[in-house]
Amino acid sequence: MAALFQHTAITDGVTVRVAVTFMPEQSRIGANRWFWVYHIRIENHRDDAVQLRTRHWRITDSSGTVNVVDGEGVVGETPLLEPGQTHDYVSGCELTTNQGAMQGYYTFARAGDGTLFDVAIPFFPLAAPAEEAR
């Protein structure tokens, strides 16, 4: 089944699309653990190649707790995207509340000169359906 991308951000010719799905079968509601899977598609609409170097996430739960995650690449990869290419990956997020949100940015390097630039990851909510909230 194709992902239904619900959230999009475009920065300097790079588009980031996000589809998020609540996963009741991987959540443990009684233990205050809710789990979501998110599918990210990165599209290079620039005239030059770019390489993803790092990620920066700001994850907030409904109690106001913020978790900042910085790291190299995405799911162990630092993809090089030629003009017109895309890169897809899937990852997950667990919260101790039934709602929250994620947003952030990737740092890319221009293949030609190595210049770094940040690309926004759109804000997207994490919300369990009402019947899964308790």
Automatic annotation (TrEMBL):
GO terms of biological process kind: error-free translesion synthesis
Species annotation: Aurantiacibacter arachoides
Residues of the ApaG domain: 8-133
PANTHER family in the cross-refs: F-BOX ONLY PROTEIN 3 (PTHR14289), POLYMERASE DELTA-INTERACTING PROTEIN 2 (PTHR14289:SF16)
InterPro entries hit by this protein: ApaG_domain, ApaG_sf
Protein's UniProt name: Co2+/Mg2+ efflux protein ApaG
Pfam families to which the protein is assigned, alphabetical: DUF525
